Amino acid sequence: MEPQPLPLTGITVVAVEQAVSAPFATRQLADLGARVIKVERIDGGDFARGYDTAARGLASHFVWCNRGKESIAVDLKDPRGLDVVRRLVRDADVFVQNLAQGAAARLGLDAATLCAAHPRLIAVDISGYGAGGPYADKRAYDMLVQCEAGLVSVTGTPAQPVKAGIPAADIAAAMYAFSGVLAALVRRGVTGRGGPVEVSMLESLAEWMGHPLHHTLHGGTAPARTGLAHAVIAPYDAYPTADGGRVLLSVQNDREWRRLAEQVLARPELGTDPAFATNAARVAHRERTDELVGKALGALGTDEALARLEGAGLACARLRDLHEVADHPQLAARERWREVGSPVGPLRALLPPITLPGGDAARMGDVPALGEHTEELLRAVGMTDDEIAALRRDGVAA
C-alpha cells in the first residue's frame, strides 16, 4: 500500500512572525507538510535570530521554531514591501501574525481585513492579551504572561515562586493557534470559507492552569507551592540517592504504600501503621514520611533504587539534566532523533510528537538563512529582474 501523503501537503502558509508563539505554531504546520513562507525584517530578521549563538552560532530558539520554512526579507513599512506580502497572501491558504498589538491592523494584515478580502483564507491573530479589554495594548512577553496567568504563583518552593523553565505561555498560544488552523481547515473543507482565528497568550495559559484554578475556584484555597513534591499526595517527591542522583517516586494509593513499605523500605509494619496507612495520614505526617523514604533510597545507588521501585510496581523516574535527555534511551530506542540542515550544517532535532503511521515521514526541512528565498519568492509573485533589483537597491528587500 502506498504511504499516505502528509496531511497538509498543498497548503500554503504566509507568516509575519517573530519570537516563539507564531513561529512554533507554523513549524507544526510545516512538519505536517505545509509550505510556510516566513516574512522577516530586512534588518536582522526575526529578532529570535539574535537571542543566543548556542546552536553552532545560530540561536537555539530560532533553530527550534523555524525549520522547514522559506525566508523572505522585506520592509513592510515601504508600500512595495507590503505589496509583496499582499501578493503572497493572495495565493495562500493560511496567514499567521503575532506583531505587537495594532501593528497588523495598521498594515492591513489583521485577520478581519484579510478574510474580508479573501473569503477562503484562514487568518490567525496571536496576541498577548486579546484584541479588547484593559490589557489589549500591554506589552506581553512569556515570563510576564506566566505571572499574569498565575503559573508562577504555583511553581517553586514555599519560600520562592519561580517561572517555568520553558516559555510556557508562548508554547500554549502556539499550540492553540496550530489546532485552531487545523479546525478552520476542516470547516473550510465543509463550507468553502475560511475566517479569522484569534488566540491570546493569557487565555491559552489560563486554560492550562485548569487544575489549580478550579481547585481555587471551587475549593477556596490555592494549592501550595511544594517544589518537586505534590501538594496533596505523599510520598510524591524527589529523593537523593547514594551516588548523587535523584529519584522521583509517586505513591498514588494505599496499596502502593504497602508495597513500598514491604519491598523497598523493608518496614512492612508501616503499611498498617495509622500514622502512614492512608494518604491523608501520610500528608499530615509528610516530614516523617519523606524521612523514611529518603533514608531507604539514600542508601542505594540511582540504578538500584529505580530497579527496586520498578520491581515493586511503583511509579518512579530519574531526575535527568538536559544532556541526559539528549541521550535518553527511550528516545534512542524509538529513533526520535533526526538531523536538519541549516546555514551552519546539520543540527540534531527531535521528530515532531504527532506520529502518523502508514503515512509519509514528517517533513523536517532546513532552518533558513535570513532572506534565503527572497529572490525566488519575488519572482513567484511576478516581479521582473528590474523590479527585484530596485527593491534590493532601495533596501526594501534583502
* Major sheet attributes: 6 strands, parallel
Helix content bin: 25-40%
Tell me the structural class: alpha/beta
User: Got a strand count?
Assistant: 11
Cα-based radius of gyration, to the nearest Å: 26 Å
List keywords for this structure.
398 residues; alpha/beta; six-stranded parallel beta sheet; 11 strands
Structural topology:
Elements: E1 12-16, H1 21-31, E2 35-40, H2 60-65, E3 69-73, H3 79-90, E4 94-97, H4 103-107, H5 111-117, E5 122-127, H6 142-148, H7 168-191, E6 195-200, H8 201-208, H9 210-219, E7 236-240, E8 246-250, H10 254-263, H11 279-284, H12 286-298, H13 302-311, E9 315-318, H14 322-326, H15 329-333, E10 337-340, E11 347-350, H16 374-380, H17 385-393
Parallel strand pairs: 1-2, 1-4, 2-3, 4-5, 5-6
Antiparallel strand pairs: 7-8, 8-9, 10-11
